[in-house]
Design brief:
By secondary structure, the protein is mainly α. It is elongated, with a radius of gyration of 20 Å. The mean pLDDT is 89. It contains 10 helices and no strands.
Length: 200
């Protein structure tokens, strides 16, 4: 019997959540579709109906996880607001995720598996644009004359690198998650460097 769309979506989510737990406990290589089906309380056949392989399940985890980063950066440029305040708000939005233990635990899992098996990203997977919000704000600030930026894409990469260099990559490779106070200092320092480099 065909499931109603809502019931089908719930079943898919049930399987996905079971897979998340399995990947967190076992890692990708040792994760088992049998255990995922058991965790989800469905047959293995049902799991394969929604996800044709373990790789597809992990690719969805990747997509959702990185999508969470992109979705969190909802700061929009406001020409009537001080640019330093706006860049700080954008940095804090990124920092809020980088200081979240659950988010960073998942990030460690994702990065360790992707670094081990780059093909897990999937050849045809659409890449999440992590820097779109940064690039858009910097481009609009340049157009408004409050910053002078020749290449907003490069400037966005620089801004993100300033934050992630201290609060993302060290954590991925085993360092402690930065505290909220430490993140505030990182954001303030990063914004100051961008203002010094591109301020009018």
């Amino acid at each position: 019997m065909e499931l109603r769309p809502q019931a089908s979506a719930q079943k898919r989510e049930q399987i996905y959540q079971a897979a998340v737990v399995e990947f967190q406990e076992k890692g990708f290589s040792d994760a088992s579709m049998d255990r995922i089906s058991a965790r989800a309380g469905v047959s293995k056949r049902t799991v394969y109906k929604y996800y044709e392989s373990k790789e597809k399940l992990f690719q969805e985890l990747l997509c959702r996880h990185w999508g969470r980063f992109a979705a969190s950066l909802d700061v929009v440029y406001d020409k009537d607001r001080d640019i330093r305040d706006q860049l700080t708000a954008l940095g804090r939005a990124e920092g809020a995720l980088l200081t979240n233990p659950d988010v960073m635990a998942m990030t460690r899992l994702v990065m360790s598996e992707v670094l081990r098996s780059p093909e897990l990203v999937g050849e045809n997977e659409e890449k999440t644009d992590f820097q779109a919000a940064f690039e858009t704000m910097l481009r609009e600030a340049d157009a408004d004359g409050v910053l002078e930026i020749e290449d907003p894409k490069v400037a966005a990469e620089e801004f993100i690198a300033l934050i992630k260099g201290k609060a993302f990559w060290p954590v991925v490779f085993g360092a402690a998650i930065v505290t909220a106070a430490e993140m505030e200092k990182i954001v303030e320092s990063s914004v100051e460097m961008i203002i010094c480099r591109y301020g009018v």
